[in-house]
Amino acid sequence: MAVDDNKGYPMRLTVDGQSFDIDADPDMPLLWALRDLIGKTGPKFGCGIAACGACTVHVDGQPVRSCSLPVGQVSGAVTTIEGIGTAGGLHPVQQAWLEEQVAQCGYCQAGQIMSAVALLDEVADPSDADIDNAMGGNLCRCGTYPKIRSAIKKAAALKTAGL
Amino acid sequence: MASVGKIARRTFLIGAAAVAGGVAVGYYYYRKPFPNPLEAELGKGEATFNPYVKIGADNTITIVAPRAEMGQGISTTLAAMVAEELDVGLDRVMVEHGPASHAYYNAAILEEGGPFAFFDESMTAQAVRSGLGVVGKFLALQGTGGSASTRDGFDKMRQAGAAARQMLVAAAAQKLGVAAADLETADGSILHKASGKSLTYGAVAAAAAAMARPAEVRLKDRADWKLLGKPQKRIDMLAKLTGAPIFGIDVRLPEMVYGTVKMSPRFWSKPVKADLSKAEKMPGVIKIVPLETNYGHGFGIIANNTWAAFKAAEAIDAQWSDPEYPLSSAAISDVLKQALATKGSVMRDNGDVETAFADAPRESIIEADYAVPYLAHATMEPMNATAQFRDGALDIWCGNQAPTLVRQLCANAVGIEQDKINVHTTFMGGGFGRRVEMDYALCAALMAKETGGRPIKVTWTREEDMRHDAYRPAAIGKFQARLGDDGMPIAVDMKMASPSVIAGTLRRLFPSVSPLGPDKTIVDGAYDQPYTIPNYRVRGIAAPVSIPVGSWRSVGSSVNGFFHEGFMDEIAVAGKIDPVEMRKRLMAAYPSAVKVVEKVAAMAKWGEALPAGKAKGMAFTLSFGSWVGEIVQVADTPAGIRIEKVWIAADVGTALDPGIIEAQLISAAIYGLSAAMGQEITFADGMVEQSNFHDFDAMRIFQCPVFEVAILENFHKMGGVGEIGTPPAAPALANAIFALTGKRIRTLPLSKTVAFA
């Protein structure tokens, strides 16, 4: 079977502290470059129009919807759910999620956690209104919102305690 | 409630379909145990005891939890059943979904398929129920649905764990030369206390697995449970918090290509003209192939990456034939109205409803028309599957609720025998009934024939997913009640019309079985409620609209919970009786129901005065064997109505994991509230009008109320958990909005009438 080349442009991406050289159509959303070209499947495809937040990653620490950001426009370092912690060394937000047993199907949780990490980097002790503002773009069809809220508050406490 | 003669006369649909599938295999086949599928796939040093337990020489203990994990926590609870009896902690075991196999048939999924309310324990009802359990084994359907997995697994998976433990103990007794009765087990080891000698399970696994299965298996008393009945840490939690590749969409294989589908936007229509040339020339596109399945027609796009496939799908220029169903939502609604005007099938008929209304004074009668729309499942993970076809065999990876159906339908589609198909079931990013369907698997299987042996991952766009669902059907209902002098209802007459979920599902999954008889799902949640009213009739009519409809979390009860409980609230208001008090009186024959209503009312401090601008509404639905009352509190705010608080009391008979059950009750209520607030699927020109989360949204965190949940265990039979929180959510909300605003809203979504904050 003949396989055409992508007719892409060579570019270099820094993802989770590692450099990747890829050939991609600069219009390809960052999400698909991460998932299909680099092999980072942590960020999820949910809607493709920045309406559900499942694809949330950080670019230079700022949360972005990677499904709607052309890879050609990415200039900063990308951090995905796979770059904030590991099973053996969880980020305080992941630790709080574990203690609160937040996830059900789990599909939106990578995006939820990345939004929460960015919120807590900005506001150390977020109010309910802060949580509503920061997390309103992250949809969860299993309805884990009450636990997400309590886990964010727990994570704030864990971070303050330096854990 | 029903005589044997009546049942014979009214062949009800699910039974008819199931028997048609079962007759061919006969009674002998039913009696014969299915072979253990784990025997074919044992690793070095591994031994298997039954389809649920594998133990390695290194003491690695693997439990198979053969039900779809779509977020409901079933893998944790099923594993706990085996682990409880095997005497190991959940942190000591590996849990796998296991292969597609008839050995994992779900008997409970059909047990409540007969024309009886759950509380009907007459001999007829019990006989038909166990008969349908037999039918479940005839069909040997490995399926997840009907909130049936814990009920199905409770006995057989505990027995699997206990049998394995007894065999391990017997083998250890032989090896140590002591009596089995002198041995104890704990955490994967067998201890001889008198001598202090101990052996791991792994050390005797091979010898134990070769022993005869014990004739009698003893199960623990509930008082001795260490895991069951207590909240467990979910076995899938860590993977879900670290971005591990656990979903179908995360599958990556060497040499893999990518794809998507563009199916006809009109259901069942064929392309009459298609220009693929522009799409075929796009960068990264390998090939575009026609697709024909039981689900309809369209094209499969094969490309170097998913994005290239998406772009090419957009560039396909096709015209599609006219649909076989009405073009617009208004025209569909007319078909439903025509159906509602016919006589229908009677599924409940107490007293003499005709006479009760014939001589009723006009002022004692209340009437209401209700309607709900089509709904999409909108799982967070769009439909997808990965397939590889080489050397005449097909491997398929996907999240699915019925592995044996994946195997059967893909075998038919690809034209190979079922034993040439390996189904790898992944975790799923939401199910809610959507992954009972097989369209995603069929598309990937067919496209895998076109890649020269390379694996292909086929991912649908959200738009394709939203517009090609098996929808919760639209439904309408006509309700009448006659009130007595005391304000209590003495007669109710309920009639609802809706496209048939069962007929729709058969067309897609078992096209050779023709639907016969009425579809019970049209009246589920209305005919089977624990109210005693002297004259009580419920009729259902299947409306002939062939837009695909399927199982949507709580199925018929998602419709009739709203109809029935909205109308009960209307009766209470008209009769000037408190809705909680009225329900307690009408449910007096069913103490479990009364206790649920009393509990939720007490939790919500029902009856206490609220500040101006706040109000509460309540609803109750018995579904999937569990009794659930919900109270919703709403507040009037400048931005619109805000749902402030929801109280839920649920009697599930036996609560195997209270943490997971509470999470499921809240989840299902949010699922129901999301739909009630704003969701609808509408049609124009034969096509779905909605496409993504901007026009088919769900509740967001800033709209989410505070929840308080109580789990009761009064009823003597175990009920389901995953769906039961959905049916009362919409009516409790609508009833609260009536209490707040005086507006009685009988048509969903509520956002057509009121604004939400």
Automatic annotation (TrEMBL), chain B:
UniProt keyword annotation of Transcription regulation present: no
Alphabetical keyword list: Membrane, Transmembrane, Transmembrane helix
Record's protein name: Aldehyde oxidase and xanthine dehydrogenase molybdopterin binding protein
Ranges where the Aldehyde oxidase/xanthine dehydrogenase a/b hammerhead domain occurs: 242-324
SUPFAM superfamilies found in the cross-reference section: Molybdenum cofactor-binding domain
PROSITE patterns attached to this UniProt entry: TAT (PS51318)
InterPro entries reported in the protein's UniProt record: Ald_Oxase/Xan_DH_a/b, AldOxase/xan_DH_MoCoBD1, AldOxase/xan_DH_MoCoBD2, AldOxase/xan_DH_Mopterin-bd_sf, N-heterocyclic_Hydroxylase, OxRdtase_Mopterin-bd_su_IorB, TAT_signal
Keyword Phosphoprotein in record: no
